[in-house]
Design brief:
Layout: H1 9-18, H2 25-32, H3 40-50, H4 71-83
Helix pairs in contact: 1-2, 1-3
Protein name: Helix-turn-helix transcriptional regulator
Pfam family, one: HTH_3
Length: about 80
Amino acid sequence: MRLALGLTQHQLAAHCTAMGRPMTNTALSRTERAHRRCDIDDLVVIAEALGVRATALLPAGVCPAHPRHTEADFCCRAQGVLLG
């Protein structure tokens, strides 16, 4: 999504920092490659900096509003994704 918007890691990290969540491009790079845990605070600010909902950054198939998925299903899947 970052690339589709034409943003570098430096630019996105700077946006996140300006929004009050200090982030380096190294931390962002590690998060993108799943070499660093992405906590909910990071997820929310990255999504806001990209101009999308946080759920847009979760893997396909995880949809908390879908009637087939319970809240517990969503939380468990999201936790597995975010914790790497």
